[in-house]
Amino acid sequence: MPFGRVLGVGKLLLLVGGLVATFLVFAAIAMRVAVRALEIRVPELAGKPLDEARALATETGLTVRVDEGGRPDPRVPAGHVLGQDLPPGSMARRQRSIRLWISSGPRVVVAPKLIGESERAAQIRLTQEGVTTASIAEIRDADYPPGVVVAQDPPPDTRTSEVRLLVNRGTDRASYVMPDLIGVNGDRAADFLRSKGFRVSLRSQQPAPDIPPGVVIRQTPAGGYQVHPGDSITLEISQ
Question: Is the pLDDT of residue 56 over 70?
Answer without folding.
Answer: yes
